[in-house]
Amino acid sequence: MLDFAIFAVTFLLALVGAVLYLYPASRQAAGIPGITPTEEKDGNLPDIVNNGSLHEFLVGLHERYGPVVSFWFGRRLVVSLGTVDVLKQHINPNKTLDPFETMLKSLLKYQSDNGSGSENHLRKKLYENSVTKSLQSNFALLLKLSEELLDKWLSYPETQHVPLSQHMLGFAMKSVTQIVMGSTFEDDQEVIRFQKNHGTVWSEIGKGFLDGSLDKSATRKKQYEDALMQLESVLKKIIKERKGRNFSQHIFIDSLVQGNLNDQQVLEDSMIFSLAGCIITAKLCTWAICFLTTSEEVQRKLHEEVDQVFGKGPITPEKIEHLRYCRQVLCETVRTAKLTPVSARLQDIEGKINQFIIPKETLVLYALGVVLQDPNTWPSPHKFDPDRFDDESAMKTFSLLGFSGTQECPELRFAYMVTTVLLSVLVKRLHLLSVEGQVIETKYELVTSSREEAWITVTKRH
């Protein structure tokens, strides 16, 4: 079972930092092709910086040395895997704790994940079920928020440029805060306050674990700690209010409170979902709409499917399940955007990939961004083509990578549902158009985004 969470990339640098401090250094590359450290202390960090991002560094490294490559984070040997075949070899025998949760908890200094394997498994299942139930219970809310955005866009003149990234972040924040924490966040001022603190915490996640920059800046560290404390304060208050009471709206926290978890565990799981859910949802919505504006044919086919499935009737959870082409659009969005270009694991025991031995306690990267653009796996890899997911083998590969099927992490499943509802509402009434002459440059950070604001225009369908 592929038990790593697909969005572990969001907290990769936190894991790197933990590894650098928790495990002794090794200088043996075990005969794996790759590069030697550029600097004794920093390893190949200067090379990563010079390439612009870890993803872009890995693209060049795999092009030069093949599917299994090595380099150095500080004094730590790192092995990167860059094809489906080598990923299959590594995934199957490796059973480790979910890096998504482990890395974020390391950064936030959370300590509650010390139960037995069976206890941790039950907690993970409760977390997943909490997402599922909160989505089911709040479908009408998702529809309402989507329709509010539609009405806003319908009110614009057709020449109006819409700041897509900004609007999608606001939409995602409203969706996640109300579904996780309830009706308190019907107040826009509460959402704005949450968004500010969320932005401060998120911008520091992963920072400073390679260069210690957060600890070196007293101002930044205080801003981060204050923002985190305020987020925790809000969650603690809501957890206390919801305990032992019934409300008409069932939210994410309710399922956790009703499970066999203590208050600290409820706080941690709520924080993890709140932090990651907002960003992942916002970026998936943004990229999906961006790609639709560049392909009139894909948008036409999606509109036809939405019209066929819903007609003049309401959008319902039951009918949403029949939007097969929409799901293909979202899968292709994740693939083309390389939404999360890297994930990570720590090698528990000595392993072997092809003829190469991977030493124990090696940091192993899954170069997902490289794999998702591999022409041997994806014909015409740079083309946005949702029809490629008509092929069952393509979906199987996507599932293996953790982007679909039973291996989907709960945050991705949430983002898929929210984006599906939003696209159904928008495409039914609007043509989504790109701004002439705009070139959207990609920024490969922890989650892939556009380097500048992505602008679109909209026109009414007749």
UniProtKB/TrEMBL annotation:
The record's section on Pfam families has: p450
Q: What are its GO cellular component terms?
A: membrane
What this protein needs as a cofactor is: heme
Give any GO molecular function from the UniProt entry: monooxygenase activity
Q: Which InterPro entries match?
A: CYP450_20A1-like, Cyt_P450, Cyt_P450_E_grp-I, Cyt_P450_sf
SUPFAM superfamilies, A to Z? Cytochrome P450
Coiled-coil segments: 214-241
Q: What keywords appear on the UniProt entry?
A: Coiled coil, Heme, Iron, Metal-binding, Monooxygenase, Oxidoreductase
Answer yes or no on keyword Coiled coil: yes
Annotated positions binding heme: 409
Report the domain of life of the source organism. Answer: Eukaryota
- Protein family: Belongs to the cytochrome P450 family.
Q: What is this protein called?
A: Cytochrome P450 family 20 subfamily A member 1
